Automatic annotation (TrEMBL):
Organism: Dyadobacter endophyticus
Protein's pathway: Glycan metabolism; pectin degradation; 2-dehydro-3-deoxy-D-gluconate from pectin: step 1/5
Record has Hydrolase as a keyword: yes
Protein name: Pectinesterase
EC category: hydrolase
Amino acid sequence: MSKKIGLLLAWLLLHLHVYAQVQAVEQQFTVAQDGSGDFRTIQEAVNAVRDHSQVRATINVKSGTYREKLVIPAWKKNITLIGESAEHTVISNNDYSGKDFPNRDFTGNAKFSTYTSYTVLVQANDCTLQNLTIENTAGRVGQAVALATEGDRIEVYNCRILGNQDTLYTSKDGRNFYKDCLITGTTDFIFGEATAVFQNCTIRSLTNSYITAASTTREQAYGYVFFNCKLTANDEATKVYLGRPWRPFAKTVFIDTEMGSHIVKEGWDPWKGDNMFPEKEKTVFYAEYNSTGPGANADARAAWSIQLTARHREKYTLENILSGWVPGKKLRLQPSGIPDTSFSVKGSYRHEITRHPNVRMADSTLPASIQVIRNVLYRTTPDGKKLLLDIYRPKRKGKTPQPAVLMVHGGGWRSGDRTHNNTLARKLAAKGYVCITADYRLSTHALYPAAVHDLKAAVRWIRSTAPGIDTARIAILGFSAGGELAAFVGATNGDPKFEGIDREQDASSAVQAVIDIDGTLAFIHPESGEGDDSKSISAATYWFGYPKAERPDLWNEASPLTHVSARTPPFLFINSSVDRMHAGREDFIKKLNTFGTYSEVRTFADAPHTFMFFDPWFEPTLATIHGFLDRVFGQAATAHR
């Protein structure tokens, strides 16, 4: 049984890398009722989208009337739902408040309420709806929602949102953007708490009543804002108010809006019949700017409403209203918060042994001469994460301060942990160095440059806190992504830009030597393939939050090659046979040479990227590091030997 479990675990680890690559490919689905697509219902397509994906999934919906009660749950973010045409791609339902459930719902209720009457409910962030009709056909039976939104950064383009009372419910405190849409209804048919912008939309009243019923909170700077919209009406609608406040601090503004004659001269209603919140007109913000058409009556508006000045109007930009979010602009990928365990030393061994039968794990025996101090807190980050390190130090026979080596693990900036450097730390410590293996924030938790801030904080901690350290002889060593980080820390010696704003120690973060083991020196370089595959998201893209094409400035800034200066210390480059892993190395060395800075290169022919963990390469790697540090630091460790 144990053998079967071991084989199963090996299989899972071997396929994690493949799974990660699959995760990075954008999903595309087609929905068609005639069976010509991937699914016959929209809900089936939504269910097929990967949970918590940072990659956008596009669902193309063929023409037809889809009688569904569609839910895009919170864990199905980054979905774009595109209909073949707004007139002929229809999502329809007819639930309404008070209608009997065929079965009790999860709350135990036997009837639908306003909040459960929706035709479409979008709970996820970063979803887009386009070229659709979303309708609630229950009729004039009370509250019957067509579209309800609970997520943040919801975009709706060229959609027809059709209903009667409570057609569009912008629930919770997210941000919505509607452009070129038709929204129809009777009473309070645009209502809710969210901050929402309506641009170039037609708002059609079907009977005498109220268009909006915002429930904006006191803390929100903006509520509903209408730009360049048209307010129209059916023949029976002759007395319609722009809005009434559902809650005391409701905010609704119409800018450059054409208003039909159905809009009453007062414009706004205070909802006096609301006994729970009387005198709401004292706290609301109802305003207009440059309203036109027969319904525009600035002089006759309710005394407690506002006509914006030109200066006040200037504040109404999309970026201001939507708190920095500009719809249509690419967003920075955000950390998933889910640990990535795809990279491990044992997993790499199982992978490499199939191609290199002579590979064997390096001897990890702890030398008797070494003392280990584990789980030392070196930093609490601004977001509350506690970062730990382990210290491997020679059992000192004297009080002579010893040189230190900070070791940075690899894993694509999103996987791995400090234990990956245990073996090298033990063996190097036996040669007279205090070796410190540290964790740092991965891209699953925080984006660039958080990891840089963490590692510079680790150097400061070593210099100011770790006992017995020769503070004039501190090196940083890293493998793969850790090699890039080590090179970056060294290349930016003395640059305050990368220290972070929450320095816990006043000590310097400068290092006196760098060992870069197969870590790239340049992300945008002829030798680098990082981010070149348009069909997948690279590890660097996850770290930066942007593809290379969108933010080349950020990719260049994060390249160690960009920052080489006279303050950059001596470098040792140890490389495998995988050329792209040392992209920019020769250019880096040329820059070092211009400043007279020492460097060495050691390349292992036919060695895989993960060579440093395995023999026959581990021992010569160890010897190369020791020789370099002895040369750079002088006879640094002779006192111990």
